[in-house]
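User:
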Amino acid sequence: MRELSIDYCGEWFEPVPDEVFVIGREGDLAIDDNPYLHRRFLEVARYDGIWWLSNVGSMISATIADGSGGMQAWLAPGARIPLVFGLTTVVFTAGPTTYEFSVHQNSPAFRHQAKDPEADGETTIGPVVFTDSQKAIIVALAEPMLRREGTGFSAIPSSAEAARRLGWALTRFNRKLDNVCDKLDRVGVAGLRGGGGKLAMNRRARLVEHAVTSHLVTAADLPLLEQMKGEAGE
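Assistant: Predicted structure:
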């Protein structure tokens, strides 16, 4: 196996150091025949001894995270980021579909120092604390990704579908979704501000990408969907 390899849906790819590896609707890694996906979206290439991931698309952003979820970045069109971890997760959304692939390096430039697994307190990211009903919103939207094993693709539920999953009125679901997005926006999570239509779809997608890659929600949180079903709440 070469120094860097990519896993998508259980299929492995090995970029060559002196060539540009193209990811998109077409390319070395043809993700999917999805009209919302750029033909050339991401590129992996090695410059000055460092592997880089570049967003060469014009509309779609990608969420990049290390394997622990402790580092996360939003890769906007025209931006690039060094691939320095042993495991890097890349998640992005094109239309109604969210995709995930992972990048593995044999000799990463940065090694994560594991923390003590014992921790106290409620679910937080920085200073943010979520109520059970707010967390249930995130789990309902992320459920397809949380139930999926490994890398691949899944559809993000609409607000109406997620509200039905919880047995809530759509107005209540949307109000709480606004609260969740506002909380994360205040601590610097990009891409959550927006109104209706495509902006609302992008906001849900960005929330799911952030929540899954940062381990804000995991498969262990799925029982919360039944626990909060039909709950009147605050």
